[in-house]
Write the structure tokens for this entry.
Amino acid sequence: MADTLRRLANTCSFSVLQDKLDSWSNDYHVASCDQNLNHCCELIELTARIQGQLFSILNLTANEAGHYGGVDTLKTRLLPWLGTCFSMARPSVSEDTSLQLIQDSVAKDRKIRELSDSHDCDMHRMETQLCSTRMQLDSVRAELDDAQKALDETKNKSATTLLATEEEILQLRADLQAAHDQLEIYKRKLDSVDEYERQICVLQDEVSFLTREKAMLQERLASSRSSSPLPTLKRSSSPARAEASTRAQLTNSCRYSRLVSRYSHLYAQDRLEAQVLLRRYVDDLEMVQKIIFIAVVESFQAAKLAYRQFKLRVRKTLSSTHFGPQSLEDVAVDYIVRNPDLYDVQTSINDVINAMNVNPRISFPPEVEFALITSIIRETCKCAFSMQTLDPPLDLAFASDGEIYNESKYRRSYDSDFSAPLVMYHVWPALMEGNIVVVKGEVVTRREASWGRSRSRSRSPSPARSRSLSPSRNLASKSKGRFSGSELQPRY
């Protein structure tokens, strides 16, 4: 405050005000109205600046005396003076109004004192809470120091444990690598075992063949001792035939077992995958099972036709260069067995899909094609093609909706009517070797099977059905066609 007062005294503001007032008084009658008004406004502005500096000094002085310092002086001198000034500025205010203002001022003073007391109580309470908070903070700091110490100890222990863990990890990695190496060795040994098993199978076939040859030789020897020379001449060609056996004849039993197992896998795995795939587009389970059954039947027909055509081409090619004890038929079959990759399976797949597209017994959404189940069609065609190289070949049992249920060829599905004597539709065809059932098929038997039979017969002469008869179907109709459906059970 002293600095502000000193600056006000040094500026000689009141001296400047007095000089301007004297100059205006001397020139008042000479100056114009606007000049006099400008002089008056200048004096008012100067007076206002001086009053502003004085009020600043008043404020600083009151602040130096404390929160409630100088209250009495302000009440006895400043407030009455301000009231007088306002009374002079507003002469319309009466004495009653002034009295009311004084009462309001007293009420405000009382309220200020109450607020001051409340403020003091709040300050005391806050100081108490601050002390409590400081004590809690000190306690938390102590706990934090203890936790930091415990953390440091844990870090030291962890560092020691980490070193040991890294050593264990390195050891485990070395053990894992050794286990991988050992696994690779076992895999190679397993492959060798599989190769040995195949060789054993071939050797067993050769042993069985040699056993039969031995029996034939013994029979020939016994017959040579007899008095009739004719049987001797007839049997003399058999050993030569036996000595000239082809690889297809030697491996016939091995391929038979492998193909039967492969056919069983088609039913157990590929059929279910195709069924799940078709159910995304066809809600009717019966239609899905019919689609798969007809796909398998058409695949066998297409594969048999392809096998016959392929064997004819092989015989034609080998006929010019063939010589030796084996017949041309055996040599052609042996060539097909040795070169199964020459089978054009894609052509058979296309034939199957074309036949299914015109089959009136099945339907499919127009936005989806039967090529969706190409996987099972391809595997079935390959399996059926290889089955034709067996002696005798394997084929599907003949099947028709409404036929009498045969327990030796089929098994009923879980949703069948077990008291129904007729087959409503086939789920999987039975595999046959001549008249012997190798693998049972699966069918659905219900009481309304006779109605389904009549319906299928009424639709059979339709133009679409007649157009679906491919060359494979014509050839199959001349021979003993075999197809049906069932749950797989290999023959023992």
